[in-house]
Specification:
Elements lengths: L1 E4 L4 H12 L6 E3 L12 H5 L7 E3 L5 E3 L1 H11 L10 H28 L3 H9 L9 H19 L13 H15 L9 H11 L7
Parallel strand pairs: 1-2
Antiparallel strand pairs: 1-3, 3-4
Helix pairs in contact: 1-3, 1-7, 4-6, 4-7
Amino acid sequence: MLFYDYHDAPNPRVVRMFAAEKGMDLPKRHVDVRTGENHRAPYNVEINRTGQVPALQLDNGQILCEILPICEYLEELQPDRPMIGATPEERAETRMWTRWLDLKYVERMTEACVVRPGPIRDHYARFNYKTMLPPEAGDICATMAREKLHWLDAEMAGRQFICGNRFSLADVHFYVFLDFFEVLGLNFPRSCTWLTDYFARVSSRPSAAA
């Protein structure tokens, strides 16, 4: 296998952290997103025609894109140290929360960092989007995302991780984007006490350095 990576982006980091939790060492090739390498041949012709990272090239030449399906594939390839679940019930719970977090928080806050003025908006305007929300929509998207975090904070009271005491793909996905948005100044509310403790707890895991 060969993992097409870009170290400064959250999406590839989800896969790296997931693989680290499972004890998997993926051969990697760096794709320089800053210079637009991902939007030039051969990457956007032979690997991922959307120009997005990451991508996983399998031994048979097949290419997998999108971080959650890549993680699902790695789980099936190596079921030990299950990160999605060991039973149908656990797998359903993990997928339920991963989907919720992706739709309600990750996508909203991603839109916030994309549309507000700055280098990320400029990059997306050049390579990704023909039509974008106006810059002032960034604050609205961020507010909507933070509202969901307040709900989640109350819902998770008494739990160690998203799925109770079981660290899962839902936690990896959530933590990586929480951390990424923190770096960009799109901070999560510190009034969310469970979330504050959770962030520190996951940050201390060795896989968080992936």
